[in-house]
Amino acid sequence: MTLQPHADLSRRERQIVDILYSNGRATAAEVLAALPDPPSYSAVRAMLRILEDKGHVRHEQDGPRYIYLPTVARDNAKKSAMRHMLQTFFDGSASQAISALLDDHNARFSDAELDRLARIIEQARKGGA
Predict the structure, then answer these.
(1) Please, how many CA atoms are within 13 Å of residue 114, restricted to the half-sphere of its CB?
(2) What pLDDT is recorded for position 75?
(3) Domain identity same for 81 and 107
(4) 5 and 62, same domain (yes or no)
(5) In terms of domains, do 31 and 62 share one?
(6) Are 59 and 52 contacting, i.e. CB atoms less than 8 angstroms apart?
(7) Which of the two ends of the chain, N or C, has the fewest CB atoms closer than 10 A to its terminal CB?
(8) What is the pLDDT along the chain (129 residues), one digit of tens a residue?
(9) Do residues 103 and 71 both lie within one domain?
(10) What domain range includes position 57?
């Protein structure tokens, strides 16, 4: 199954999935504590069940508690989200996306980041990417 990690999620569902990716795993109470302007505990539990039904989250039982985890590895989710973003906003063009990032005057790149980008570009030229 190919997930579009955030394509079919509400804002609040996206926040919950982001918390799970950030923490790696969390109980409903931990998710609730991490949410901005949190809803009720029962609302968080309901959203976690919905996220399970959508295939974004699974749970493991730890005694009486459920521990929630994302179903897709973070790296896979990043790649899928990036493909979706490229297709949606940049007509599938990585160079347009990179240009948008580099043209953003609010983005500040360190010399180390620019060096890393240069190495990645060089690897791509050599066919290693």
Answers:
(1) 6
(2) 80
(3) no
(4) yes
(5) yes
(6) yes
(7) N
(8) 344 445 578 889 989 999 999 999 999 999 999 999 999 999 999 999 999 999 999 999 999 999 999 998 778 777 877 888 898 899 999 889 888 888 887 888 889 998 998 998 899 899 865
(9) no
(10) 1-92
Q: Which two tokens stand for residue 32?
A: 């609730």
74 and 109 part of one domain: no
Do 55 and 112 reside in the same domain of the chain?
Answer: no
Amino acid at 102: L
DSSP 63: T
Q: DSSP 3-state assignment of 104? A: coil
If residue 66 lies in a helix (H) or strand (E), which one and from where to where?
A: strand 65-70
Say how far apart CA 95 and CA 123 lie, in whole Å: 15
